[in-house]
Amino acid sequence: MHTAAARNTAPRPGPEVMAAFEAAKGFMPADEGLALYGAASEAARTGLPLLEVGTYCGRSTLLLADAARAAGVTVLTVDHHRGSEEQQPGWEYHDASLVDPEVGRMDTLPTFRRTLHAAGLEDHVVALVGRSPQVAAVWGGRLGLVFVDGGHTDAHATADYEGWAPHLAEHGLLVIHDVFPDPADGGQAPYRIYRRARESGAFAEVAATGSLRVLRRTGPGL
Ligand SMILES: C[S@@+](CC[C@H](N)C(=O)[O-])C[C@H]1O[C@@H](n2cnc3c(N)ncnc32)[C@H](O)[C@@H]1O
């Protein structure tokens, strides 16, 4: 596990990227963002693409993209851009400004594109617009990092884990957001895939920051 001293020497995004992250719509606090950036910087040294499930408006994508730019690799970010259950009208995380009035449904893709463009990071990201399991089923390449921050039901989190973890190269990093061991702090689906990864024997935990967990693939398995 990383110590506080190790975190102090960890790579950090530049101030413009950090300011763009802070200004972007999204849910990730800065300490978790810095931990994600550190994992992405390390994983990018494999030379393999970094994959995010759950683009939303690009808040976390900015950090992955900056780390990818520094290493000359590409970020792939998957989202159907229609929002998760808790982002629909009437739910806690709904943002009415993200509804497409013509279609009558959430559409976070335009905001995501503006976020990335304003930060000058468009060239380092490929947006995959679709349902995560469907995209995973047709994806054939190896990945240096898989960041799971998509749907938070058991069905979605499990499908994300089972769809994308097999593509993670040996020594690649699996990062899971919203891991809450105590049910009083939040939903349990991300915690359950985190436990599953640990118990599989194929992953070892390398860092924990807030609700973000970083695990390294140490062998084959799921
Ligand atoms: C918690 S948000 C992602 C937040 C983002 N990573 C950030 O830091 O700002 C979850 C996103 O996952 C997307 N999502 C949920 N289920 C999905 C699925 N099965 N396939 C693709 N995207 C999905 C939603 O549309 C939503 O934008």
From TrEMBL:
Entry keyword annotation includes Zinc-finger: no
SUPFAM superfamilies registered for this protein in UniProt: S-adenosyl-L-methionine-dependent methyltransferases (SSF53335)
GO BP annotation list: methylation
GO molecular function annotations of the record: methyltransferase activity
Pfam families associated with the record: Methyltransf_24 (PF13578)
Membrane-spanning ranges: none
Protein's name in the database: Class I SAM-dependent methyltransferase
Organism field: Streptomyces hazeniae
Keyword annotations from UniProtKB, A to Z: Methyltransferase, Transferase
Organism domain of life: Bacteria
Keyword ATP-binding belongs to the record: no
InterPro entries per UniProt: SAM-dependent_MTases_sf
Enzyme class, UniProt record, top EC level: transferase
